[in-house]
Every structure is written in C-alpha cells, then in structure tokens.
Amino acid sequence: MLKDITLGQYFPGDTVAHRLDPRTKLLLVIVYIVGLFNAVGWWSYAFVVAITGLCMAVSKIRPAAAFKGLKPVIFIIILTALLNIFYTKGTPIIEGWIITWEGIEKAVMMSVRIILLIVGTFLLTYTTSPIALTDGLEILLNPLKKIKVPVHEMSMMMSMALRFIPTLIEETDKIMSAQKARGADFTTGSVLKRVKMLMPVLIPLFASALRRADELATAMECRCYHGGEGRTRMNIPHIHASDIVALCVAVLFGAVLVLLNSIKFGYVMTR
Length: 271
Known about the structure:
This protein has helices at about 15-20, 20-35, 40-60, 65-70, 75-85, 100-125, 130-140, 150-180, 190-195, 200-220, 240-270. The protein is mainly alpha-helical. The chain has a domain at about 1-130 and about 240-270. The longest helix has about 30 residues, at about 150-180.
C-alpha cells in the first residue's frame, strides 16, 4: 500500500549513475527538466522517453520501482488530462461534441510530460544519498552566499525533507494499520466521511513528525553540529572523466531536442 511509494528513497548501488558527482547529477536534472518543458511534437517526446529509459538502464533502477513513485500524483495526471480534453478547442471527434482531436493529443502529451518529469527527477534521489545531495546543492549555490542567502540551511532543509518522506510514509502505514485493526474503514462511504476518517491518522502522524524533528534537533545540538563556514566533509565531491562525458551528453541532448523542435515548427509553418 503506502509502503510501495518510493518517493525520496535512495537505492544504494555501484553503477555509473551512482558514481557521478552530485553536482553533475543536479545539472543533468536541470537540463532534463528544461528540455522536457521545451519539447514540442511526438518525436521530441519519443526522444525524451528513450533518454529516460537509457538513464534507468544505466542506473539499474527497475521500471516498477520508478513508476511506484507516481502513485501520489495519479489524481493530478488524470485531472490534467481531463481538463485538456474538455477545454481545448479544435476539430470535434464527432460533430456537436466538445471533445476534440487537439484536446486528446494535448492531454496525452501533458500526461506523458508529468510522468517523465517525475520519473526523471526521481532518478536523482534514487541514485544520490541525502548527504551527497546536500553537499552538491550547497556547492552549486555557493555564489548566492555573497548576497547573504543562507545556502547551507536551505540545502539541509531540502535534503532532510526528502530523507524523511519515506519515514513518514512508513509511519502513516503503521497508523492506518492500527486504525484498521480497531475497526476503522478508509475505503467505503462518501468523500466527506473518508476525510473525517483520516483525522485519527493525521493527528498522531503530526505528533510523531514533531517528535522526530525535536529528537533530531537535540541530537544535532549534542554533537555540536554547525553548517556553513568551517564545516568539514567526509567525502569531498570531485569531478571525474565520467562527469565530463555526462555533461557533454547533456549538451548533445539539448542540441537534439532543439533540432527536433525546429523540424516540428518547420512542419507547422509549411502547413
């Protein structure tokens, strides 16, 4: 059930993707997201799908594990598709209908875009430990320190939020199992009734989250933790040849997408 959700989890491994510098992986994800949002036409989307599949193969992440992370956003994907189907103007499928061919095409494209966005960004957390992710993000954002931006605190908060998502999901599953053992039913009844049934789950979940946060803060204080200037790192990130190759592949990825988009626009202009 909830334990199947893989959001924020890290899968240890010794693949090329795991060995890449965290800064390189963050830059690759940025290029991937920008390219995905600028993809136009089916050829561009097919190319992005192929690249995503290649990344999953290189990182040795099973497709089932990657697509489990889509469970929390299935409703958003369906809602987005329906809105595009019913509100996009164009040529009706059947005369008099509000559903158009353009609406169906746009709905499929938007759904594919959301799925690729989630799966692609999840590969970052699947192959990068929270500590490495924090260090990489902090180093990339270092220039912002000149304008007094608390870079370390921001990086720490983001990585800790990702780190505790699996823990909170597991805690939620335990609480729901305990409530079901007491006779609670979360699957039947009206929407309002099911929302009310979630209250006995949310209250202990928030209490547990606050308790964990307080315990973590106390543990960090006891170890005299301080970030920013003067903080040492056990593993210092280094750029290797594989990182240079990965960045070159990212540039090639962007160039191919621009080419595919230009072909699409050229085709549209000639119609």
